[in-house]
Amino acid sequence: MVKHRSSSRSSSSSSSARFFSVKAIPLYLIFIFAFTIWFLVFTSRNIQTDDQSQDHQQHHQHRDSRKNLQEKTSEDLDSQLWTPPFSYGLHPCVKPSSRYKEFIESDRYITVRSNGGLNQMRTGIADMVAVAHIMNATLVIPELDKRSFWRDSSVFSDIFDEEHFIESLGRDVKVVKKLPKEVESLPRARKHFTSWASVGYYEEMTHLWKEYKVIHVAKSDSRLANNDLPIDIQRLRCRVLYRGLRFSPAIESLGQKLVERLKSRAGRFIALHLRYEKDMLAFTGCTYGLTDAESEELRVMR
User: Do the Cβ atoms of 189 and 212 come closer than 8 Å?
Assistant: First the structure.
């Protein structure tokens, strides 16, 4: 009897254990499934966080790299802008050679009426000094252009240092401020020299001295820069442009003050010549952005 009860309890306990084990399987599966889902979510979130962190880091690195490149490029451009340009072996050419012939005192005179803007007049005056040297003539201080667009009434000494001009060219050509009284009333040969002419052309022009003591040149644009003139004549032109033609003391003083003011803030400055004056527009025929009335005004100027 006792054995039967004990056996019955043991059988009941075993059946109960099997029952609970069978019922627990779905719970285990649910738990495993839930844990798997949680693990995947947690892992993917960490991966995403790591990816975002890596992307953020790469973005910062790329931004820093781009910033450094921009700074380096800016520094390179700044260095290129302010560093003196490469000379390519070029050097000043104002010193005369050993074969240069100084002028011989002459009682023949050349008077000149310069034409064009300031720079054109400068180059024209340099040409006329060279022509006077070739033709062995005394040069009278040139008259500046008063008939062009601006109607400027300035004389040579208003713009240039007249005394310096005369003294600096003492070995090259004799320069006087005006014609001597004894030749003022004499007939003059009026001449428009051919542009781009050679030395031979100006040597031929010396035949005019047989009849005249004064040659008046109505325009100074002889353009001697690139027409196979002897090297000493080209060097003479350079001496006139870069040593002889110096601005008057008043202009030099004003220019120095302007430069000092421009340098006072950053030490460096950029000067820009727009070339947008009325006379330049009229000369080029450019009417971009102008009204019909303004275009007509420029046409009349031309």
Answer: yes
Across-strand partners of 112? 217
Average of pLDDT values for 177-188? 94
DSSP character at residue 86: P
Residue 273 has pLDDT above 60, yes or no: yes
Q: Is 4 exposed, middle or buried (0-12, 13-18, 19+ CB in 10 A)?
A: exposed
Q: Are 228 and 201 in contact (CB under 8 A)?
A: no
Whose CA is closest to 215, among 106, 59, 55, 52?
A: 106
Contact (Cβ atoms closer than 8 angstroms) between residue 99 and residue 204: no
**Is 114:124 a contact under the CB 8 Å cutoff?**
yes
Over 60: is that where the pLDDT of 10 sits? no
Give residue limits of the domains in the chain: 109-252, 272-302
End-to-end CA distance of the chain: 142
Beta carbons within 8 Å of 232's beta carbon, 6+ residues apart:
96, 97, 99, 100, 101
**The pLDDT of residue 11 is above 60:** no
pLDDT at 290 over 90: no
Give the CA angle between residues 125, 129, 218 to the nearest 5°.
Answer: 55
From 172, 137, 178, 156, select the one nearest 243 (Cα to Cα): 172
> How far is 49 from 54, CA to CA, in rounded Å?
8
DSSP string, 124-193: HHHHHHHHHHHTT-EEE-PBPP-SSTT-----HHHHB-HHHHHHHTTTT--EESS--HHHHTS-EEEE-P
230 has a pLDDT exceeding 80: yes
What is the rounded CA–CA span in Å between residue 294 and residue 129? 40
